[in-house]
Design brief:
about 325 residues, alpha+beta, 4-stranded antiparallel sheet, 18 strands, about 20% helix, globular
Length: about 325
């Protein structure tokens, strides 16, 4: 079964040819659109309106030849709204790869019902959710959240961001950058909604003095615990380990340098997560099974509510200002 999942990212924009925090743009301030080919200029009140214009410009299929993919925004699905602290946009993207021949076979009769040619693109529907905090008096909003829905190994993050970068460079002379979104919050969500199958702790016994390391008993000591009943106190201990920059994990009167957990999520998929490298973790979450319809795709209304829930949990811990 192809797992339905989401990839959550933070993003910010910066004026072209500017480095560091220099040139970071507020997402809630006006943006000047310049179309040199048509000698046209107009202003958009904020980045959300810029993104909607980008959406409108990609309603027909684009052939992304480098990755052999077709890509288009589905104009029939465009949902704009707002919550107490942010505005949002949800849309549907149709995308699929081509370039490889295959035989489409009926699983019940084992008969080949269609021979897929190299020029046939296997189009699938994906959803995207963009959220930007509302303008406020305390700070400039310079970071937002963008969430991409995946189907198994198939996704639309890379191709969407490539087209968005091209659009922003051409018409606004700005760049967009995406990155991991609060890995600590992601891990907290995993602990709430998933099951820890195994906990592995590692102690480094190697001395800086090489003469100390001759003989039995030196090196790394690794201990694994399986079939765990994860109490709230242990969950809190794991969360605190993730948050601290100088990480030491205490367990049964011993101190450990590294911690790994095997997590089984709502879809039954098991991931091994190294809590020492949490900042490099790819933020991919399986969607709850009740969101999946009989055809294998997500229910649009349920997915929208899930996008909002995820966004609000991340926003509680995120910082949306970069320059201050």
């Amino acid at each position: 079964m192809n797992d339905l999942s989401i990839t959550a990212c933070s993003f910010h924009t910066r004026k072209k040819n500017k480095k560091g925090i220099e040139g970071i743009c507020s997402l809630n301030k006006q943006k000047l659109y310049k179309n040199k080919e048509k000698n046209e200029e107009k202003e958009f009140p904020n980045f959300m309106k810029v993104f909607i214009d980008f959406w409108k410009k990609h309603g027909e299929y684009n052939n992304y030849i480098e990755e052999q993919k077709l890509f288009s925004f589905d104009k029939s699905v465009r949902i704009e709204g707002e919550e107490a602290n942010y505005v949002y946009f949800m849309g549907k993207i149709n995308s699929g790869a081509y370039g490889i021949e295959s035989e489409i076979t009926d699983i019940e009769t084992n008969e080949v019902v269609y021979k897929k040619k190299g020029k046939d693109a296997d189009i699938k529907p994906f959803y995207l959710f963009l959220a930007i905090p509302k303008k406020n008096e305390k700070y400039e909003v310079e970071k937002g959240i963008i969430i991409f829905q995946n189907i198994g190994v198939y996704g639309i993050k890379t191709i969407t961001m490539n087209y968005l970068k091209e659009y922003l460079t051409k018409y606004f002379n700005i760049s967009i950058y995406s990155g991991n979104i609060c890995p600590e919050v992601f891990f907290e969500r995993l602990l709430k909604e998933s099951k820890i199958n195994k906990l592995t702790v590692v102690k480094n016994n190697i001395s800086d003095d090489t003469s100390d390391n001759i003989g039995i008993g030196y090196g790394k000591q690794e201990v694994s615990y399986s079939k765990l009943i994860m109490k709230d106190s242990m969950k809190e201990k794991l969360i605190n380990f993730v948050k601290r920059p100088n990480r030491i994990f205490e367990l049964e009167d011993s101190k450990y340098d590294q911690v790994k957990v095997n997590v089984e999520d709502a879809s039954g998929r098991v991931r091994t997560i190294n809590l020492n490298n949490i900042n490099k973790l790819s933020i991919i979450e399986s969607l709850p099974k009740e969101i999946r319809m009989s055809n294998g795709y997500p229910d649009q209304e349920k997915l929208l509510e899930h996008f909002k829930k995820v966004t609000e949990e991340y926003m509680e811990k995120m910082t949306f200002n970069i320059t201050n």
